[in-house]
Design goal:
homodimer, 64 residues, mainly alpha, two-stranded antiparallel ribbon, 2 strands, 58% helix, DNA-binding
Chain lengths: 64, 64
DNA sequence: TCGTCCTGTCAAGTAACCTTGACATCGTGC
DNA sequence: GCACGATGTCAAGGTTACTTGACAGGACGA
């Protein structure tokens, strides 16, 4: 799974900590998602998609 | 979170065990998702959406 | 130089996801 | 009556997602 979180975050000029605050998670969680340490839960994926006004499929991509 | 898994599964005439086999998970997992015990991981949500040829947003709904 | 923000990462702990194995119940057909 | 498939649920265990707290390095401005 790859994602567009870093790109979308930087477009908005937010730090990882600031995005974490917007999403209700820690900055380490944002960092872990951006660096690919793990995938978000489905509820968090919905929160992220909603925040960036995109579909989950537009932000997260399965890498076969 | 609510989902349309049971409805989609029954449309196809599959048992929980048969759907589990199609998705690569156990029948208890399918049962737990249908009965709302927990939400799937994001990768499993993608697998389910792909299997039913729908978007994640069409199958899973956040209940505010 | 010093302070501050940002990022990356680690360690330790809790909660959620998913497993196998088991048992009970219900409906249907033989 | 007896199998059998389907569903619901439990227990115990492993892995993943997320937490707080901490430390280090780089960039930048005062």
């Amino acid at each position: 799974m790859q994602n567009e979180i870093r790109r979308l975050r930087e477009q908005r000029g937010l730090s990882q900590a600031a995005l974490g605050a917007e999403l209700g998670v820690s900055r380490q969680t944002v960092n872990s998602l951006e660096t690919g340490k793990y995938d978000p839960s489905l509820p968090l994926a919905f929160t992220i998609a909603r925040y960036f006004a995109r579909s989950i499929e537009e932000i997260f991509h399965v890498d076969d």
